[in-house]
Amino acid sequence: MATTYTLISSVTVGSGGAANIEFTSIPATYTDLSVVFSIRCVRSSVVEPGMLRFNSSTSNYSLRRLNADGSTVASSAVSGETGMIFGDINGDTATSNTFGNGSIYIPNYTGSNFKSISTDVVVENNATESSQYLLAGLWSDTSAITTIRLYSRNSHNFKQYSTAYLYGISSS
Amino acid sequence: MASTYEKIATTTLSSAAASYTFSSISGAYTDLVLIVNAGASSPSYDYAMRFNSDSGNNYSVTRLRGNGSTASSLRTSNNSFMNSTALPSDVSANFITSIQNYSNTTTYKTALIRANNAAGATEAVVGLWRNTAAITSITISPEFLVNLLAGSTLTLYGIKAA
Questions:
Q1: Number of structural domains chain B divides into
Q2: Domains in chain A, ordered, with CATH?
Q3: Other CB atoms within 10 A of residue A28 CB
Q4: Which of A92, A111, A120, A128, CA to CA, is 20 to 30 A from B148?
Q5: What gap in Å lies between CA B10 and CA B4, rounded to an integer?
Q6: Would the ipTM clear 0.90, i.e. be above it?
Q7: To the nearest whole angstrom, how far is the Cα of A40 from the nearest Cα of chain B?
Q8: B38 is in which domain, residue-wise?
Q9: Would strands A84-90 and A47-54 be described as parallel, antiparallel, or unpaired?
């Protein structure tokens, strides 16, 4: 039986930090993609919106999210951004050594339909504020996804030891 | 190392269909994962599943839902299918379903569904099928009332513990 869940690439941010994590030249040989990440950024706050961009495209992103911050649960819709918010990541005033963790699932990433995604993301912090996200995202573009960039919405560098793993899931 | 995550079956609908069924599911795995990327011929019909063709009122769900303006929870008991958020009128929603311990014959079966329609809602759903039978088939439909769109893709994976 062929392997169905394959690591395509992984990134661990080095000592200098990084403005983003990017997977390029993603092969079209899989059915779905999954990104599993653990990220903390240098922003002086507990949380920072994490963003993604497909194929360097800066348009056609929309989403509906369900999020909680330790005291309130809310839902909102977002569109018109130059990337897609995938959830919150830890800022640098969150409990030290704590990273925001999550997964992004992208079915049918080479198909001719618009690309829908699912994300589950958490920020934990040993204080009042935290963050949980469940999110439905849509990139209204029929192109096959060949690159994925993860970055901070407010341009804060990712800290050392941030990681992201890109998996390909094959149904062939 | 033995593969623990295996494709059981996959399809891309070449034409609209009232439902799609994965049948003759082997009991060789521990858990199942169903990945669906789909739309419906008419919007506002929920993504729905039945196991082993059971159309009795043996399903219940608890839904945590965000529709873009309101966070809410919904309950349905004694339903004739296990449902989550509505399908859009294009192939732009995804549904990721995990079914634990699907082949045992002593417990009722539980499923976790992450449902995502960026024009509708995102949901986390827990579903229960009150039946102790091993799951050998799964049927997917928009509430068993309208069609799945052509181009919808459905893939069933098995996860092995050993």
A1: 1
A2: 11-169 (2.60.120)
A3: 10
A4: A120
A5: 17
A6: yes
A7: 25
A8: 5-159
A9: antiparallel
